Fold these 2 entries.
Entry 1:
Amino acid sequence: MELYYKDKTPVFDIAAGLIPGEIHSSHGQEACAVGTVFVLGQEDWITAAHRPHHTAIARGICVKKILCEIMGKANGLSAGRGGHMHLYSKEHKFCSSGIIAEGMGPAAGMALASRMQGKGGIGVCYLGEAAVNQGAWHEVMNMAGVYKLPFICVIEDNNWGVSVSKAASTAIARNSDRATSYNALGLYVDSNDPDDIYNKMTEATEYARSGKGPVILELKTYRLQGHMLGDPQHYVPEEEKLAFRDCTIDYKNKLVNEGVITESEADSIIADIKNEVDEAVEFAIKSPLPDAQNALTGNFV
Ligand SMILES: Cc1ncc(C[n+]2csc(CCOP(=O)(O)OP(=O)(O)O)c2C)c(N)n1
Ligand SMILES: [Mg+2]
């Protein structure tokens, strides 16, 4: 026991603070959400991963409701029952799951349903590069290829699955190369730039909507805050940490350098976003916890 506890001192008390349990931050991966979700329409369906907040915000889901859900409050998307990994909004055709690669089947099913009903929507599943090694991923990709489903799998490649590197867990460098096995189109973006991602996602959606079959779109990105907040990432080599990029800063600089916006316009956009988040935090803190009497409402019992 003593040997086990050596160097395993918890960095934080998991029950403490405003957010019950841990939280998997999307910081660093914002470009993946903005560059892909903005290509989608209201008719399309999204299943997001256990790190779903950037995707949910890009889909236009109310930040106040997201924060209430994260804090387990009654005003949350699912009245506080889902928590930070399980964000759901029927109106936005959006859900997410703590089980990695879980969204593959539902997104492919929504793609099939949409085609059968002639609604023209596509199904998009978001997951991390490590989740691709889950058996369900391969089963669903295979059937999506067989049925030529209007389905896109967006892989956010941050190079880590908890503390295991992509090289240590995955036989090939790019998961998009797996597309050949599933009669799919494979695309890779290595810039973490929203414009580049938007362009490739546009190509992906045109392909999927045309009836040619599924697409695997892998995006190189960075997990800036570790697997979950409080993870000191000692296992990440120092040179890799030095190469980490924050796409929000890079994109702001790009827009300013290209003369799309001025520095002061950028500052005011950032200030507006901070205000919106501060207001949402305040709203969530003041929101009530779910009433214990409703504990069984909405559950399968
Ligand atoms: C089926 C299943 N197995 C294991 C886990 C535990 N788990 C949670 S996140 C994770 C790694 C995910 O890595 P990746 O898919 O690259 O996503 P990232 O965390 O990097 O965004 C694992 C193994 C899980 N949630 N579900
Ligand atoms: Mg990963």
Entry 2:
Amino acid sequence: MIKEQRKAKAKAIAVKLAYVILLLLTYTLGYLVASYPSSSPYPPLSHTSAPSIVQLANLPNQLDHFRVTTHCADRPVQPGLVRQTILDRVFNSTSPYQDFPPPHVRGRLRPKRIKGWGSNGAVFENLIRKVKPRTIIEVGTFLGASAIHMANLTRQLGLQTQILCIDDFRGWPGFRDRFRDISMVNGDVLLLHQFMQNVVSVNFTDSVLPVPFSTGSVLDKLCEWGIFGDLIEVDAGHDFNSAWSDINRAYRILRPGGVLFGHDYFTAAADRGVKRAVTLFARVHNLKIRIDGQHWVMDPA
Ligand SMILES: C[S@@+](CC[C@H](N)C(=O)[O-])C[C@H]1O[C@@H](n2cnc3c(N)ncnc32)[C@H](O)[C@@H]1O
């Protein structure tokens, strides 16, 4: 009898305990749901009135992460007007070589200081002979070694070619370890000026023009302004994201029949950066990659 009473008592305690645990669990769950924000990035829409078109247009969307909504010009600028268009849009209609060098850098530049990487490879002559470009866009110029080589080639072939050199002329963090001789004025390294001095020294100021901005911003602008390239060389940032962005943006401003190519396909850094970006891009767009020396060349399949 006592045994049965004990059993009943234990059962009653177990049931009470179960209720308490259930209560605690429900409470905890309710607390958690109330204190965490909704995973949706969108603000809640009022159910009482429909959203306006402006509200809808301004809702966050996937393109915000990439900002690639630039509308490219409907009509390309004629090759003969490319230089003047850049002068007007970027340099207040005045050649940057006018009155060069300015007093504050005079005496700080070397008469000629040219250094590049694979900048004289046969690929340049092969492509220039094949495409006979009127407009070349170089994405990543540094001191102008490859740009000056291309200017030489186009001159030898009697072509009327304008070469636009896109570079922020900042180099990269740490580049001064190897280029200490390039002067700095109040923290501003004179890379743009030394590049321009190099161009002056070989008398190519009429055919080689700096476009001193970050690649991402200016490639989109060229598209908006209607400036397209017959030959575009990509040789700026070598990490995957930079190369991927530059290649995608450059491809949008490549004239039909033009050729996109770039430096570095074999180094360890290229393997994780440039090479992956090039390979992925070619696969997505059904293009063939050809290797010419140290360069990759994207040919229409
Ligand atoms: C390897 S160097 C170019 C060498 C040149 N093509 C040659 O062969 O003589 C790379 C250049 O890309 C530029 N660069 C890198 N990332 C850039 C970016 N996001 N925007 C503009 N320039 C960039 C650097 O300033 C540097 O001058």
